[in-house]
Structures are given as structure tokens and as C-alpha cells.
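Forum: Protein Structure Q&A
Topic: Joint prediction for protein chains with partners

I've read a bunch of threads here and the consensus seems to be that you should model interacting components together rather than docking separate models afterwards. I'd like to see that in practice. Below is the full input, 228 residues plus whatever partners are listed. Could one of the regulars post the assembled result?
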Amino acid sequence: GAVVSQHPSRVICKSGTSVKIECRSLDFQATTMFWYRQFPKKSLMLMATSNEGSKATYEQGVEKDKFLINHASLTLSTLTVTSAHPEDSSFYICSATQGWGYGYTFGSGTRLTVV
Amino acid sequence: ILNVEQSPQSLHVQEGDSTNFTCSFPSSNFYALHWYRWETAKSPEALFVMTLNGDEKKKGRISATLNTKEGYSYLYIKGSQPEDSATYLCASPPTSGTYKYIFGTGTRLKVLA
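Posted by a regular:
Agreed with the consensus. Here's the joint model:
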């Protein structure tokens, strides 16, 4: 079945540094990838949608310059949290799809802690 | 704004017990409902995609029903096993043809041996 690999699973970084999270579709071509954020005891919130080769579409309230998304190939999307602050500490998870009607495959998530 | 709610938030059952939990969504403009099973440190796994009122789907000991007129879906687990312990998520799109699924907060199930 479709598999999405997300790395790292856990990262601790210092305030002011940037962190890159990778999301790879291992056995299918992901035309669209999604990035979600989850706060404790809250639901998954969509941050942005990225299509291969084009700019990501960000949800309202998500800072584009803070959360840089790159979808340079059909199998890789990256989320870079720039100049991280403690309030960026959260659980981030990606999902990918081959297209409408194919369903969604999730990565296993990244727990980011900014100290 | 579509609001997807799940209850209960968490649930402890004994091994062998059957259990069920609920996903509620607005009954107007319904398009689809997805159920996922999410074990700790793993990826959410798709269980069911439900689209028609009265749909009933089954996967082993897990089954789900859908009532779009009253806006709910039930997930049932028969004869719970410790390996069923996970968070069960439901999600629904607010409009047709959109990827922007709205997720519930999940029901965390713990099956005690």
C-alpha cells in the first residue's frame, strides 16, 4: 500500500533557529501534499496544501514566511519552520495523495520542541 | 463552518468487550466521511470512506455506519483486543471536491488486557 515517510519524528531546537521537516511518498507520486498542525487535545488543523512545482496554498492565519513549504518533486515536500519560537512547538504531520479519489496517506508526524 | 465532533474523548474497555463511538457532523451539504485509526508513533491508517446515507462498512471486527440525515457516524469494535488501542479520527470535507477535510479531535481507545 501507499507509504509516506516523515522525518524527523522528533526534534528539539533552540529559539531563533530553523527546522526542516521532510515528507516523502515512497511508492507513489504525490501530486498534492498537505501539512497539518495539532495542538494538545485539539484536532488536526490544515496549514497548507502544496502541489508539485507550484507555490503552496496557505490556510488563513498561517504565516507563509514562518512556515516555508517546498514541493519540488512528486515524492518530496518539505516544511521549514523559520526562526522558531517556543510557541511553534507542536506536532506537525503531512499527508499525500495521488489525486482526487485516491485517498490520503499520512506520515507519522514530527514533534517539534523549541527551547 | 463545518464542525466535526467526536465523542467520547477517551474510552477504556476490557479485552473482549464491544464498544462504539460517535462522529457528528452537520447534516446539510454532506459529501463524505473518513475514519482513521491512529496508533501512537505511527501514521493514521485509513479505515473507511463513507458517502451514502445508510452505508455500513466492515473491516474485520471493526464496522461503521452512516446517517447523513441526522449527521452522525458510529464506529463499532466487536470483541476489543489490546491491539485495537489507538485514537480513532473522523474527517469530512466542507464542500465537494475539496482536499480541506475537517478533522474531529478523535476518540482515544484503551483496551485493557
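Chain A touches chain B at residues 4, 6, 9, 32, 34, 36, 41-46, 49, 59, 93, 97, 100, 103-109 (CB under 8 Å).
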